[in-house]
Structures are given as structure tokens and as C-alpha cells.
Specification:
This protein is 8% helix and 53% strand. The protein is mainly beta and 266 residues long.
Length: 266
């Protein structure tokens, strides 16, 4: 195996290792149904423009939709959570903690680690509606992730499952993904996108008005291009350079163990 393949798989191992710590193994989170005992949480929070939103340690899916937000000085964030477990006792062993202030919204797994609560089987489903003008971080998610466009910075790390996102005008830093990655690219901010340590395939769906410079280092699979206006050339065994449209902000990709594709976004 090539050295760059070890890099991608090392990130993947980290993502998978995080899943059992919060209950259900990663493969079980692919099931759509909840476990028998369940609880729903529906809350709304006010956030100042540019607020920080963090979601971490979720054993299940995360879906984030984004809206323009209010024209006033505050924006509304809506949080919908379904948490479930095999038994009521296991459901009582943990919670999804929500810490909120005007400038931040943090959601994270919180579990007792005594007695029978040390090992439980649990799942969560999170649906968030956020204003676009936030900085968003997702970490240690064991399940599929879908993200709308934000104008702030996006950081994804330690995710085990399929990830699909719409790139916004902020900087995106995506690392340690054990699953397939799909990125919709229309317009980029000046810092662009950085992707590293992906154990799976990556697909960039390119909009008609997109422009970017492409830098690819350490890819184990091939590179396919079918999107108009995209040109990619191989410069060494596992390194490539390319351009979208007239060039512009960087799309930097490294440590990918699967194939990479650039296709037209429909």
C-alpha cells in the first residue's frame, strides 16, 4: 500500500473508533428506524450574526438546512432531535446536551459512565435549521451528514458515513471522513476548500459559474472529469493539478484512498 493510502486510512480508523464510545456501532446507524425507547426535542435559539455552532459525538444522522436569517440583529436556529435506546434505562443514561449563548450553540453527547450506563445501545437523529451567517463545526458523527450552504467557516472531522454538502462562501476544512464525500460547488470564498484523509470516494459537482484552482496530492484511486470547464492533468504518480473555469480560490485534496470525480451539477 502506498504511503498516502495509510494517511487516509488512519483518519478513517479514528472516525470509526469514535462510534462505539457513544453507543451503536457505525454500521447500525445506517438503519433508518429508531430504537424502541425514544424522546423528541424541539427547541429554537437566538444567535447573533457570525455565531459559532458545534455538533459533536452523535451516533446517527445529522441534517443541516440553512436560511438567509432575519434582517434584525439576531437569527433563529431551530433544533430537532430524536434520541433513542433499546430500553428506558439506557435512554436515561445519556442526553444530548445543548449549551447556548448569543454567540454560540453547542450540542454534544453526555453520558453517565457508571454501572450499567458504561455500555449502552443508543442512536440519535439531529435536524438543524441555521442562519447561513454562522461558523459550523461537526466532529465525531457516526452516520450520514447533509449540509446546506453557509457563509461562515465549515469544519468537519472524524465522520463515519456519507457526507454531502453545498459549499458556501466561507472556508471549508474537511478531514478524517470514513465514507463517500459529495461537494456541490457553485461559488467559492477566497480561501476555498481543503479536503484530507478520506477513506472512500470524493465527488465534486461543479456549477456553471464555478471557478477554482485544483491541487491534488496523494490519491490512491483515479481522477475522472466529465464537467464542462474543468481540466485536470497528472503531474506524478499520485499528484494532479487542474483548473475550473478561469481559476481562482483553491480546492486542495490530499490523502484520498478512493476515486475522485468532477461532474456537472444538475
Amino acid at each position: 500500500m502506498k504511503k498516502h493510502s495509510y494517511v487516509a486510512l488512519a483518519f478513517a480508523a479514528i472516525a470509526i473508533a469514535l462510534a462505539p464510545a457513544i453507543g451503536a456501532p457505525a454500521q447500525e446507524n445506517k438503519e433508518a428506524r429508531d430504537l424502541p425507547e425514544r424522546e423528541e426535542i424541539h427547541q429554537s435559539y437566538q444567535l447573533a450574526p457570525g455565531a459559532r455552532v458545534e455538533v459533536s459525538v452523535v451516533s446517527g444522522s445529522v441534517d443541516v438546512q440553512t436560511v438567509e436569517g432575519n434582517t434584525a440583529e439576531v437569527n433563529t436556529a431551530k433544533v430537532d432531535i430524536v434520541r433513542s435506546a433499546r430500553t428506558r434505562a439506557e435512554l436515561d443514561c445519556y442526553s444530548v446536551a445543548i449549551d447556548h449563548s448569543a454567540t454560540s450553540l453547542v450540542l454534544h453527547h453526555q453520558q453517565e459512565h457508571t454501572g450499567s450506563c458504561q455500555s449502552i445501545r443508543a442512536r440519535q437523529r439531529l435536524s438543524l435549521t441555521l442562519p447561513r451567517n454562522v461558523d459550523l463545526t461537526l466532529h465525531a458523527i457516526s452516520g450520514p451528514v447533509t449540509l446546506g450552504s453557509i457563509s461562515g467557516n465549515l469544519r468537519l472531522s472524524g465522520l463515519s458515513g456519507r457526507v454531502e454538502l453545498e459549499q458556501g462562501l466561507g472556508f471549508s476544512d474537511i478531514s478524517g471522513i470514513s465514507g463517500n464525500l459529495i461537494v456541490h460547488v457553485s461559488r467559492l470564498g477566497e480561501r476555498g476548500i481543503r479536503v484530507s484523509g478520506i477513506s472512500g470516494t470524493a465527488e465534486f459537482l461543479i456549477g456553471a459559474d464555478a471557478s477554482a484552482e485544483i491541487v491534488i496530492n496523494g490519491i490512491a484511486g483515479g481522477v475522472g472529469v466529465t464537467a464542462p470547464g474543468v481540466a485536470v492533468s497528472q503531474v506524478s504518480e499520485s499528484n494532479f493539478r487542474g483548473r475550473i473555469g478561469s481559476g481562482g480560490p483553491p480546492i486542495s485534496i490530499s490523502g484520498l484512498s478512493g476515486t475522485l470525480a468532477f461532474r456537472a451539477d444538475k
